[in-house]
Input
Amino acid sequence: MSKKSFRQAINEALRQEMRRDPRVILMGEDVAGGRGGTSGVQDAWGGVLGVTKGLLTEFGEERVWDTPISEASYIGAAAGAAATGLRPVAELMFVDFIGSCLDQVLNQAAKFRYMFGGKARTPMVIRAMYGAGFNAAAQHSQSLYPLFTHIPGLKVVIPSSPYEAKGLLIEAIRDDDPVIFLENKVMYDDEEDVPDESYTIPFGEANLTREGEDVTIVAIGRMVGMANEAADRLEKQGITCTVIDPRTTSPFDEDTILECVEETGRLIVVDESSPRCNMACDISALVAERAFGALKAPILRVVPPHTPVPFSTPLEKLYMPSADKIEAAVKTVMKQHAREVA
Amino acid sequence: MQIARETLLQSYRAMRTIRVFEERLHVEFATGEIPGFVHLYCGEEASAVGVCAHLNDNDTIASTHRGHGHCIAKGVDVGGMMAEIYGRQTGVCRGKGGSMHIADLSKGMLGANGIVGGGPPLICGAALSHKVLKDNGVAIAFYGDGASNEGFTLESLNLASVWQLPAVFVVEDNGYGEATGASYACAGTQKDRAAGFGMPYMECDGTDFFAVHETAREAIDHARSGKGPVMLHVHLSRWYGHFEGDSMTYRKAGEVAAEKENRDCLKHFRDRVTSAGLLDASALDDIDSAVNDEIESAVIAAKAAPWPEDAALMADVYVKY
Output
């Protein structure tokens, strides 16, 4: 056990799985870097933010495949390779680039098993960065997990910390279905204790990062840290919160959310993705349908507005959910009964 | 190159099976008993069979929406295919794929594909598997002149060249992408496209089995020997509409009749092998008769087969969920 960054945790998960199983290969744009050109340093980048650094050196060119900037070809190749015996981990860099290769995920990888009557396995992982807060503007900041969660046949993983990232990525690589693994680009330097040895965290089992009596907060990915911060502040003010990290949006742990809402009677959902048809809507519908009687106040959603992600720092801050906004939402549902809020 | 008698018999049987399978679907579709829609391969049989004659179960192919011929040529069970097209539980995909998604990975058949241009990226991946696993396999993408204009396809030609994959890109050019002529929709030439990606280009008359067989042998040998990908441009004609029910008003009167008269791969094959004394007409007649029986049985069995159980709706979305 030692302190590791989110970046190191992912690198370690990839390295350990590549050592364990020779069928695991990496592909993506500049996952090594330095090929061609004027033959400078090999393994020059290790991914655009250095997450795959050193893997070419350890595993060689037959395991680490730099691709042209050509998402449709290599994401499709990952699907084809997965269906024929390899276990590719493809890096899409920014999840926004799914626009260049959605067919390969939506109509190919996600559908093989069902369309082929259960006779295919497609053990591939697509890693991609998501999220705002990096001044990366509208084409490099989206949180597109609702899009993937919507597609039957895909699994969708959104780790909330370095520990979670390592265990969930190892689970994803060993999984026999196509997995979308989304890394929040603001979190790569976050650090916490992460075991040196290999471990897995199962999909579809939510994690309670805080336990309280007054309000249930469901938060996704980077939002978990913000929810914890808000919960810690509120505790000093006499309000205790349960914070749920679902870890995966597909499969999705409905039971834990329902049980917690039965206990607290109040629900806040914190979701960084655009607000129409996002996870906050889905979770609200779930609770309205199956725990309506337990609710003491309306469900509140802490979500961004229905706009592209703005570039300028104050606008992006305004756009994003935050610990302050979560704290305010909790106070709102504590203060008022359902009818008054409505 | 001399082709073994056994290969000739097998190839003729595969081509005849495709022809009878498709012509029977043409008849059965008109009765309304076949759900969804089907795209027939009649007229193009020598392409699938001439290419697949050089492949084994370890090699991979990806097909198109017009995929029945490729499936049969790659050895997918004909009865299971027919049942699949009828949506029955006994289909090769248990009735959950239908005509456009017939696949059998145990035969190296990575699927027909409902998305135009869906196959070439997948074939880059299958070829990568063959290369990394060092199993001496090759991967073949069949795609049409229409799919040759998809960005996916062009990206795949580039990737296959960059990675020097054991892949063959077979452009089945039947002159039409749906109802629009390739002469309108394909800028430049396929040859120049191959050259643009540094890839060897070969072409042949797809109605001449012997031409396809010989050219495909060169292309597949090249890819299998580790020299990188090849484009094989096969000139074809389709005899039925884009889909069944397409009255083909976009083709001039007599065009298809002339193709059937002058460019029928089965007629060509029969004339060639009998005049050269390679096979007796009676051996071919026996195959015709056996194939007719096989397709008749397949249709009867498919119509009598059970529909999928309700539980199949929820099954096989995931390996585990």
Q: What stands out?
A: Residues 5-30 of chain B form the longest helix (26 residues). Chain B touches chain A through 50 residues (CB under 8 Å).
